[in-house]
Amino acid sequence: MTTLRITIDPVACDAYGYCAELLPEAIVLDEWGYPMVDGRPLPPELVAQAKRAVRDCPRRAITLREKKAGS
Amino acid sequence: MSSTSIWYATRASGIVALVLLTLTMVLGLATTSRTRARHWPGFAQQEVHRRISMLAVVFVAIHVLTSILDTFVHIGWLAIIVPFASPYSRFWVGMGTVALDLMVAVFVSSLLRSRVKPGTWRAIHWLAYGSWPVAVAHTFGMGTDAGEHWVIALGIVCILSVGAALLWRVRAAGVQKEALAGVKVPEIPQTRLALTPRSGARRYDA
Amino acid sequence: MTRSVSQALPEVASLHHLLGHPVDLAGHIETHGALAVSLGHGTSWQRALAASLEESGLAGRGGGGFPASIKLAVARAGGHGGTVLVNGMESEPASNKDKLLLTRAPHLVLDGAQYLAALCRAKRIVVCIPIGSDGVAAAVGHAIDERSSARYARVSETVVRPPDRFVAGEESALVNFVENGLSLPVFRADKGSALRIQKRPALVHNAETLAHIALIARNGPGPFRARGMAEEPGTCLVTIGGAVELPGVVEVDRGVALRDIAMLSRPVEPAQALLVGGYGGTWVGPEDFGTPYASMSLRMIGASAGVGIIVVLGAEACGVAESARIARFLADQSAGQCGPCVFGLPAVADDLAQLARGQVGTGLMPRLDRRLGEISGRGACRHPDGAVNLVRSALKVFAADVAAHAQGRPCPYRHKPSALRFPRPITI
Prior knowledge:
The complex is a heterotrimer.
Chain A: E1 2-8, H1 18-22, E2 27-29, E3 35-37, H2 47-56, E4 62-68
Antiparallel strand pairs in A: 1-4, 2-3
Chain B: H1 3-32, H2 42-69, H3 90-111, H4 118-125, H5 128-142, H6 149-183
Helix pairs in contact in B: 1-2, 1-5, 1-6, 2-3, 3-5
Chain C: H1 25-32, H2 44-56, H3 68-77, E1 83-87, H4 97-104, H5 106-119, E2 124-128, H6 134-149, E3 156-160, H7 171-180, E4 195-197, E5 200-206, H8 207-219, H9 221-225, E6 235-242, E7 248-253, H10 258-263, E8 271-276, E9 282-284, H11 295-300, E10 309-314, H12 319-332, H13 339-357, H14 364-375, H15 383-397, H16 399-406
Parallel strand pairs in C: 1-2, 1-5, 2-3, 6-10
Antiparallel strand pairs in C: 4-5, 6-7, 8-9, 8-10
Helix pairs in contact in C: 2-3, 4-5, 4-6, 5-8, 12-13, 12-15, 13-14, 13-15
């Protein structure tokens, strides 16, 4: 079963913070405004919001990647 | 529809379009200078900027269409795309065309943002800085309602708003530079990015 | 001067006896024989050499410790026409082994690159020597000229000079520099994916690894496997520094106890800690001095082997202050691309500096602990991770000192000049 995981490109990220606003259940900002994700698979009910975060990031720094279970 | 009604539609939609474009510019500048309204999330601010720009496009479209369809003066379909191709008021209609062309480029590139390289998108978006002043010049150069007091007042408000937003954005870039000086960004010969801490500093970009 | 710990074992896999003085091409051929590579695709020679490398169990000597045969397989799968990069950057200030290898035995290193180039059908070899290491660049340049005049080299060899910065030696930063002139690490979501230069594979190896490859190619995997441990075979070069009488580069078998390695350089006083792996490595306390110098054993005590470096911290030194200096150095060496590194490392360095001075307000220790947890793993490269590991090991190994400093009783040694080498003086 494939799951989606959030990946942040730290070079592209410029701490706009929209992803944390849209997805507070999965993304928290550190003290300097940069996103922290825990690497857990995304629960299905958050996927739509996550896709919106991907679309809204001004730097296209956040992506959703498919990971096979167990990898 | 009588020629006069079409003419009023052209003028009205033009004024509305100018206001909406001004709002778009102000919101865009606020977004990049990382100015945040207190209880208004940043993603929503960006979304409002996008939606107002779409509304502006609609009113510009109405403005352009009605001006072409108006039989009283002859502008011609070509003048929509090619600047200074209109027999009527060649220069000022031409300015409108220039503003329109730049605006369409910005709009289309934003619709296709996910397919365009970030650097390319940003470069095209900068054309907005050219489009808006040209639109203002077109509004007052055309002269139709430019003598009316309320139109002049509106124009001044628009210019002051964008001017203020621009100054705010330039200041934000300066604040950000200071914040980075405190962080001692290392001297790499080809560092190409600047970064922003959340605490108060702003970021400079397009 | 270099010394080998196990003098009794066969020398044919050793590097140290090749490093006594510079060797020119003629001398190199006399000792090792000429370079014999078979070009082509899928030849039996290639299969045999690839099998040799795999059997040897050689792991990278540049800090990553990644099996050379796996890296090679990834590059080979990427097709032909690629580039082999010789990583001669040696960005750890405490390390000297690669400079030594490249000035005394450049032909051995270049031969190693030629063997790899033949195996993955690369079309060029690029040797990366940082700006400022002009002696090394001259020696390598001279060797390359000898090889091209004698038509000895099969694949073209050139030298490039990236900037002299810590992250410049990172694999993706080297590849980025060769391809785009930007000495900046590149984010790869999948760290195992192949590096590429203009869509062709790029294979990056440390100079010492390539020297071993050249010896394995000529002598087979046997002599290499006869040294070291079964799980981690071979020898490695270690630069020993700090409070010792005879600082320098030694060659040791993998698996020799840390204490025995340090003793080779004759410490001047009992050591209170050893810095293993350089500034991106970890501290090890006296209770663990008997740990074998091998990745697995070091990992079990929360340390990492990293690059072959051991710095001896004498008894009359302040581990907290030295760690604060290292943290400041690492913060200054950030590439400046990723927020957690650009802002996080200086914040941690500030915290450690305060700790070193003994001016600790409430909340500093929990804040430092939180930051260390938050910074790791969030950069494009492992630079912030290395810094975090260094600081964590300091808090553990110097726990008693840390507690005293935190209570406003810093030790008197924090004002002593640093025993550590830095490119520019570091103040905390």
